[in-house]
Amino acid sequence: MEVRHTAGEALSSEQSARIHQRLVDVQSQLGNGESAVVYLPEIIRIFPEVKGMELLLVSNPEAATNYEEWDKTLTGRDGNVRRLPNGALGLDFVRGQKESYFGGAISPEALKLLPEMKSESEAHGSTDVWRRVDEFTDMSFPTLTSIYRNPSGDEIFISTQWFNQKGGLRSVMGATELEKIEVDGIEVQYRLEEPFIFTETNRLQSLQWIETFDDRSLLYTVGTPSLTMTKEALIAVMKGLQAR
Fold first, then answer.
1. CA distance 196 to 175
2. Which of 91, 180, 186, 210 has its CA 20 to 30 A from that of 111?
């Protein structure tokens, strides 16, 4: 699994915060379980590697708030998936969702809307354009995300993405800080992204590692948008997950 990144226009914290608010404005107009694709004219300048796919997905996902029910969803998908029980490490389960912490995937059909949305944007003086789209469930690499809150009110998420192949993390998208570390014999990538358009805090810290089986690989991500949580606190969550 490899993700390439090409540097684009420098993104300031203020610009990132404005982009995030525009995405939140779209999300506020969605009903429960609805999704939308958003065209923002400046995205291609900031992220040139997404040329031809410069739509952002915003969703208001249906959430499971009962831990026992969500745990059945996780184990129903894979009996070997690592889970963190409600209350472990002082973390309270908030919700589970069948997509990443930042939203789902854009379907090929939704991506076909790009030329039309781009033309509409240009015709109206480079305005933002968005469209509601059907939820995309036919994903080759599904993701399930469990979200917790610590006593300080910080959200911590644990995402698991399934791949029908063996592999390793060879590179990741650009980050303010990137470090390879070893945790209990496991190679982990730590990344700090700031500014970050998908969180209210403008920040994301995360740990990623791969667990491989004969017929599949599981990509785990433990992350937080918190401004105060440390890398060591995320490592403690990872260790708690590994102990299960």
1. 9
2. 210
